[in-house]
Design brief:
The chain is an alpha+beta fold. It has helices spanning 2-27, 32-41, 73-85, 104-113, 139-151, 169-178, 201-208, 211-225, 233-248, 263-274; strands at residues 46-47, 59-60, 89-94, 97-102, 126-132, 155-158, 161-164, 185-191, 195-196, 199-200. Among the domains are: 2-113, Arc Repressor Mutant, subunit A (Orthogonal Bundle), CATH 1.10.10; 126-191, Alpha-Beta Plaits. The chain has a 4-stranded antiparallel β-sheet with strand order 6-7-5-8, covered by helices on one side. Strands 1-2 form a two-stranded antiparallel sheet. It has a two-stranded antiparallel sheet with strand order 3-4.
Amino acid sequence: MEERKRGRKGRRGKGETQRRIKEFSLDVVTKATDLTLFLIFFNWEFAFSGSRSGKAVWRSKEKAFEDLEGINYETLRDALYILKRKGLVRVIKDEAFYKPLITTAGKKRLQELLPSYDKERIWDGRLYLITYDIPEERKNDRETLRNYLKKIGCGGLQRSVFLTPYNPKGILEDFVEERGLKASIIISDVGKDGSIGEKDIKTLVREVYHLDDLNTDYTVFISEFKNTKRGTAKALKACFAFVEILEKDPQLPFELLPDNWAGEGGYEVFKKLSD
């Protein structure tokens, strides 16, 4: 009975790893070469035979790809040849197999694909409010502006009001100029000791950016993966999990984060598994 329970638990763990890989590959890494590069970088150990035309012989800690649509060992093998040709990985001989290692160029490519944890968050101590009044006949421009504000890390306070702790004037200038929206947008700011309505800045930021929910995600991540060993299937799962959380993190100034913020601890766990 106990053995059957362990078997079911193992299958659930494997399924969770597969789910994370599939979702991540659809949302962030859209090509097999990029997904393969990601796996190499995060210590997913696999090796391949030297023959490209013959049947590839693979060895892996876990067959994590066998049920994923469009992702199989042959696809990854071909992706490795492309990565090697582009100089994004190099290959070393490991007994009878070849083992891929990521190069500096490969790491640079990943930096373009993946969010990174910012340990240096320079803040001028002010909170910026972006308000706009765009008529209904220009609703496409209005939606484009809203999407752009979200993309650059602004949080929605009200339907036509966004806020951010980082000065948006420079980055917004060209955008509003191109679309003739300059007269429709007002940017104002308040100091770190100010308030908007009855709420101080720190409380307002916590609510607008849903920091309590995000902090819970980091706390759960730490609890689940803090004792994980590098190079294991669980370590790969942890890397996917952290990047998923980081994609939601606006990476606000440390002074505005909750006192019990777990993001730094989550990053340390991730760093231990990915370095």
